[in-house]
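Form P-L/3: holo structure prediction, ligand 3-thiaglutaryl-CoA.
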Amino acid sequence: MKPDLFEAPDYYNIDDLLSEEHKLVRDAARQWVKRDVSPIIEEYAQKAEFPKQIISGLAEIGAFGPYIPEEYGGAGLDQISYGLIMQEIERGDSGVRSTASVQSSLVMYPIYTYGTEEQRKKYLPKLASGEFMGSFGLTEPNHGSNPSGMETKYKDMGDHYLLNGAKLWISNSPFCDIAVVWAKNEDGRIHGLIVERGMEGFSTPETHNKWSLRASATGELIFDNVKIPKENLLPNKSGLGAPLGCLDSARYGIAWGAIGAAMDCYDTALRYAKERIQFGKPIGAYQLQQKKLAEMITEITKAQLLVLRLGQLKNQGKATTAQISMAKRNNVDMALTIAREARQVLGAMGITGEYSIMRHMMNLESVITYEGTHDIHLLITGMDITGLNAFK
Ligand code: TGC
Ligand code: FAD
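OUTPUT (holo model):
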């Protein structure tokens, strides 16, 4: 892979709107990605393996629990810093950002928000340091976009719960130490349970043959009469709103993260267009290529402004699910369109692993599907503006 020459585009001087802390956090993540992710990521994507050696680095830049209070090992940062960290990590690779998103928003967030003080103390510091890695089990073979129909269930056995069922398409599953799993009780009410590796009847087979998110490990979570200690139930929220609340936080991070992938594609295409000579001129001198590049920077700039405002709302506790949906949907679609256009600017070179663009493009096919598909987010916006529910 070519050396990482990335220069971040900031067409509207958005840096002027960030605090010194935001810029320090962002720059530390940016330097770390350049030093520890860019040189190895193509190799790991090619061999379809998560690079476990970067776990400690992710912890050091605050990517595990950026907004979780410091007393539980988190970085105690605000929502804009969280977004900037996700942006920088996804600039390196969406799969690495996935690992951080799951750990922070789908494992640490529910334990912090819905868990007991004992659960917080037991798990959060280890998750923040990367000593423990977590996964989040919502999706099932028969229930993706409609998790309310989930079949995974648990039964109260007096001194413990008995868990049965299966989750599919689970990021980090093959190597997770714990899984936050959503299951129905005998009354059909959804609760979160913390399942630990080593519990009898719990297995995590890996899903192979992915063309997307190859540097992220994806797998199943299988529960065959798993005995769960009663203290592993998250007691402070039940119903589908509990997992959906976690998704709000993760989708917000993805809205920022997708900008990172788009910035990397744009920066690579811009540099290539200025250097590649055809018909005696750099290809960037031709109007067709300028149109592609001009539209890319326009869309990136709009996306940057969208998430910055969303981050302000989130810091004030005012960001709604529908506002987050809009940003996730828009920014991932924007990044995928830019990846496709940028790939064309590079001609044949664009299909090789010498450049990051094709990897970003393939990754974004997952990002546009997980955490609510492109269609589902449109329907969430539609429901919000019309007051009419297309799901029921
Ligand atoms: P609906 O009837 O609308 O809602 C059920 C209950 O939940 C409440 N609620 C929320 N609560 C908190 N936060 C939110 N964001 C909430 N949204 C809804 C709602 O008020 C209701 O409460 P109550 O008290 O009345 O019961 O639910 P529905 O069954 O009609 O479904 C709505 C729909 C389709 C929008 C939802 O199910 C959905 O978002 N589906 C998409 C599924 C999804 O996003 N799955 C993601 C799996 S995790 C993942 O992909 C990780 S990838 C990680 C990575 O690698 O980065
Ligand atoms: P389906 O729900 O079957 O949808 C298929 C198609 O139908 C889509 O185009 C969808 O938009 C459309 N559709 C569905 N319902 C409607 C409707 N009402 N109206 C119109 N169109 C509709 N899940 C987890 O729980 N944890 C994880 O860590 C996790 N990681 C993932 C990692 C990867 C790499 C991938 C690819 C997925 C991951 N997922 C995870 C699962 C992901 O959240 C689901 O794939 C996603 O929610 C969609 O579910 P589905 O694939 O079953 O598609």
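COMMENT: The chain has three domains: 14-129, 134-234, 241-386.
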